[in-house]
Amino acid sequence: MAFSDIPLEQKQAALHDLKEIKALFAARSWFPGTSGNLSVRVGEFSPEQFYFAVTASGKDKSVHTPEDYLFVDQDGAPSEATGLKPSAETLIHCEIYRKTGCGAIFHVHTIDNNLISDWYGEQGYVPAQGIELIKAFNIWDEDAAIRIPVLPNYADIPRIAELVPDALDPAVPGVLLRNHGIYAWGKNAFEAKKHLEAFEFIFEYSYRRLLLNAASTK
Length: 218
Known about the structure:
By secondary structure, the protein is of the alpha+beta class. The longest helix is centred in the C-terminal third of the chain and has 28 residues, at about 190-215. It has one domain (about 5-215): L-fuculose-1-phosphate Aldolase. The protein has five helices and eight strands. The N and C termini lie far apart (about 60 Å). It has helices spanning about 10-25, 90-100, 110-120, 155-165, 190-215; strands spanning about 35-45, 50-55, 70-75, 105-110, 125-130, 145-150, 175, 180-185.
């Protein structure tokens, strides 16, 4: 399917979802500076061809303008004429879409996800067990345990993107960049938001538990 064949209402719905999510996360201070990026896929999907709306590079996500987003293809190239540049980490979105076929990807920088990803960075994953919010990932086992992948935060984005396909766990809809932030995804914007909120709860819980454990050994 060519980008021009995608119905206009689908494109408008994606932009509407992005605007609402951006406002919500900005109110939570999840976009310090101009950090973070959001995307929602539109149209039919195949690993060889797909399109998505993504936040433009360098924008203040606490305000809304007509130039906050653009549409790109499976290689991260703009799908229509525009003077906007896609977010610097769009290639990572491309690889997650290609691997998972998901419908939306949200990436934010928080203190908790930075600290916890750095603490477990050498291990390559953040362990989480027995935390109620694991159920948000449709994992219902009693005392369930998951491992949230942590990738190195290279300055060269294509180098990170190359690592993404092999790092993803089908049961865990998220991946961390060490001392950088979380990418969470879902079949649509609602599910991606739910997953992101669950990850952030797990990170805050894990960080506070580390502090309590350290205090108890003094």
